[in-house]
Specification:
This protein is mostly helical. Helices cover 77% and strands 0% of the residues. The longest helix is centred in the middle third of the chain and has 34 residues, at 120-153. It is globular, with a radius of gyration of 23 Å. The chain starts with a helix and ends with a helix.
């Protein structure tokens, strides 16, 4: 049966105009994130690594508490010990941050995304917002769950803490925020590189290789540079007490980390506007 011109015009009038509100972009990015199987696998690994490693380390510490020396007992930080799994979470959540951007380039679906929503900066902001919220919620869950489980396992006579202990709440909340912001750093790297393997390698290199390179420098120079690196900032944030003499305060370090993420995402946005999809 042949369609009438009137019916055809009516269907065309209901097609998307290509001018989407920001909330529509958010819904689109949320749909992409939650319907991809790798997202759930990566988030699952983040939760398992964070809570599992923290539980393992705190249980091991409790088992060997009686054999620890007086100095080790005195300097023991039960808060940072229970959050140690977050240092592995950063790799999983960073991998997801890279995939959120690079996966669309590897499959070619980024062309469809930018054709439907030609305002490229808005697309990047929508991606970063959806991913950032998911990363924050999951990271905070892992951080608080690791803390409570860890303190439960650090039973007497081992030293343990509560959220009301000095610096504990700041470290636990800051730990989740630290992992989420690192995920945005990986997201920013991916907007620049646009390749999954390259983005992940660059992210891991910043966390693991760059500190080794800096450590090989003269000690006076190395100490001044190390305080700006994400790994050192993370140690200071996850510690209830000051970890290093020349370290930034936890919130100053967090601000520096946020600045890294902002700069990388901004550079990636400019490059996305200038380059072909």
């Amino acid at each position: 049966m042949t369609n009438s011109p009137t019916a055809t015009l009516e269907r065309v009038s209901h097609l998307p105009s290509g001018h989407y509100r920001f909330v529509d972009l958010l819904r689109s990015e949320w749909t992409k994130l939650r319907t991809v199987r790798s997202s759930w696998w990566t988030l699952g690994v983040t939760v398992l690594l964070g809570i599992g490693i923290s539980a393992l380390v705190t249980a091991e510490t409790r088992a060997h508490w009686s054999s620890m020396g007086p100095g080790d007992k005195l300097s023991f930080d039960p808060v940072s010990t229970s959050l140690i799994g977050l240092f592995l979470c950063q790799f999983a959540i960073g991998t997801l941050g890279a995939l959120v951007v690079s996966a669309e380039y590897s499959t070619g679906t980024i062309r469809a995304t930018l054709s439907a929503a030609p305002r490229r900066p808005a697309v990047v902001v929508a991606k970063a917002t959806v991913y950032g919220v998911v990363a924050f919620v999951v990271s905070e869950f892992v951080s608080f769950a690791s803390f409570f489980l860890g303190q439960f396992l650090l039973s007497s006579p081992a030293r343990h803490a509560t959220l009301s202990s000095p610096g504990a709440l700041r470290a636990v909340f800051g730990g989740g925020l630290f992992v989420a912001v690192l995920g945005l750093v990986a997201f920013g790297i991916a907007t620049i590189i646009r390749h999954t393997a390259g983005s992940i390698i660059a992210f891991v290199g910043i966390l693991l290789v760059l500190p080794l390179i800096v450590q090989a420098l003269p000690s006076s120079l190395s100490l001044n540079i190390r305080r700006f690196l994400p790994d050192r900032i993370g140690i200071d944030i996850l510690s209830a007490t000051k970890a290093f003499p020349n370290a930034f305060s936890p919130w100053a370090g967090m601000l520096i980390l946020c600045l890294y993420a902002f700069v990388l995402i901004s550079v990636g946005t400019v490059l996305m506007v200038r380059r072909d999809a």
